Amino acid sequence: MRLLTLVGLWAGLLLLPAAAQQVERIAPAGNVLTHYLDRANIHPPVQLGRLTIFPISLSRTHRLGGVLTMAGALKRGLLSIEELDPPDVRRAKFVNRSKSETIFLMGGEVITGGRQSRTLASDALLGPDSAEVLPLYCVEKGRWAGKKGFAADTTMAPLAVRAGAARGADQKEIWSEVARANRRLGSATASEDLAAAMGKAENVKRLADLRGRILPKLPSTCAGLVLARGGTILAADLFNSAELFAGMRDKVLNSYLSQYGWGHPRAVESGRFTPPSQQEVRSYLHGCYRAGFSAGPSRGVGRIYHVRGVRTGQTLVYEGEIVPVRPLERPPVRDGGYMVHTALLPEVVPVRPDLPVPRVPRPPMPRPMPRPTPPEIPYRR
């Protein structure tokens, strides 16, 4: 009897490694961005001439409550933005006066007033009753005078300006992109102000008209967008929840449309091209599983993570704990942190031979799990 027991235990030990290996293949390790994508679904596209926009929704939302946008916080008087003493072109102070709410600031948002208009270099998350000095880029080359405080009016920079700021471009590159945007938008001011170009009456109307052709076609659960022009996928903006996306969607669309809705005769007209499919968008997002994901600087109570290699961009993560509002309510699953926003942006490859293109080791691709195909394509491993 004892011999039979030992034989059974030995057989069990022989079988255990194979089962363990199978589990590891099915559920490989990931990060906060890939955990987010495990819950994402790609909806059928919205077509606007040569632009194709794919809405992204979430099957489960690990929602951050009590998050205000910059526009919402300024409207309620809960956010103030001030020049430093002495003033610094590349930095300004952001003060959250709320006692209980956090404020999400998105890279590329343009603040006006102060000594000159600037754009945020990256995302940030301001905790309640806090002040942070954040990095900026100048988008108004010809002015360095004015008041200490910034105005309540904000806008969003075109996609190319956002991409340059996110990759840490020098100020001259940003000014070059601003000059191109101003020409494209038909604006000529003495100070070369990007905010003035975005706020020009006919441009505001055009942007509203173009957004009006897109917004009614987005699902109510939309939490992000993937952008393509012609047959090429260019960028994506993914948000923590449908609520946060709803607060940012006009600015995100303005960023896309101010880049690609002007300057080309067929920019918003149909042409001969084959738009990407949902499966191609799925493959594009699959690149995030093979990309490098490394921790960057803290931005308030959030931290920036750099996406490099197969895909290029930034992810803002809240790594703190969330206290449920109701006593018996369970907090959302952390997944290593709460993804607030990810921007996947067009990659720029340097031409100079002494500036090598960074290479990131590529881990193996996660094996997709077999799933039935609903009307929208589920994006899961």
Quantity of strands, as a count:
19
User: How helical, in percent, are the residues?
Assistant: 25-40%
- Structural category is alpha+beta
- C-alpha-based Rg, rounded: 23 Å
Main beta sheet strand tally, sense and closure: 10 strands, antiparallel
Arithmetic mean pLDDT: 85
Order of helices and strands: HHEEEEHEEEEEEEEHHHHEEHHEEEEE
Number of helices: 9
Q: What amount of the residues lies in strands?
A: 25-35%
End-to-end distance: 46 Å
Number of domains: 1
Low-pLDDT sequence parts: 2-7, 9-28, 324-329, 359-374
Shape, per Cα inertia axes? globular
Brief characterization of the structure:
The protein has nine helices and 19 strands. By secondary structure, it is an alpha+beta fold. It has one domain.
Please, could you describe this protein's structure?
The chain contains 9 helices and 19 strands. Strands 1, 2, 3, 13, 14, 15, 16, 17, 18 and 19 form a 10-stranded antiparallel beta sheet that branches. Strands 5-6-11-9-8-12 form a 6-stranded antiparallel beta sheet. A 3-stranded mixed beta sheet has the order 4-7-10. It is an alpha+beta fold and 381 residues long. It is globular, with a radius of gyration of 23 Å. The protein is 29% helix and 27% strand. 42% of the residues are buried.
